[in-house]
Amino acid sequence: MTIELLLINLDHVGIAVRDLDGSLALFEKLYGVSPMHRDRVESQGVEEAMLAVGGSFVQLLQPTTDDSPVGRFLRKRGEGMHHLAFAVADLEAALRHLISEGVRVIDEEPRIGGQGKRIAFVHPAAFGGTLIELVESP
Ligand code: CO
After folding, report:
1. Of the CATH numbers 3.30.70.1020, 2.40.170.20, 3.10.180.10, 2.40.37.10, which one belongs to the domain with range 3-136?
2. Which of 44, 62, 133, 136 is catalytic?
């Protein structure tokens, strides 16, 4: 596989927030950007909003339950950057490559995220303590 073609771009930066409506209002007031898309993803226990910034997005995540991954993150670390998401052309190939490198992935198979996109998470232990999401670009 051609490693240099693995990532297409930085798709979004995910930020965990306690109050999605309040955070959206603040983001719009400070940076003049309103959400393009808002979605409740029950399988991940989040309500999320996507804010377009140039060719990338900021994703604000509010947990729907305290024991969801984002709910636990907020309890442990408070509000702040939660993950980086890279767009990939071929999600299965990217996962196969990472697994072959001995990387601990959270999702060995793609799952469906917000906006019906195919995604997978890579464990923060794999690189600099940063949770990485891979998003398949249609
Ligand atoms: Co994300």
Report:
1. 3.10.180.10
2. 133
Give the Cα-Cα-Cα angle 49, 54, 57 (nearest 5 degrees): 25
37 is catalytic: no
DSSP state of 110: -
Q: pTM, whole model, 2 decimals?
A: 0.91
123 is catalytic: no
52 forms bridges with which residues in the sheet? 57
pLDDT tens per residue, range 92-107? 999 999 999 999 999 9
Residue 35 sits at φ, ψ, to 5 deg, of: -70, 140
Q: Where are the domains of the chain?
A: 3-136
For 108: left if phi > 0, alpha if psi spans -120 to 50, otherwise beta; the answer is alpha
The catalytic position among 44, 47, 62, 83 is: 83
Pick the catalytic residue from 47, 48, 82, 136: 48
Q: Give the C-alpha separation, 36 to 29, whole Å.
A: 16
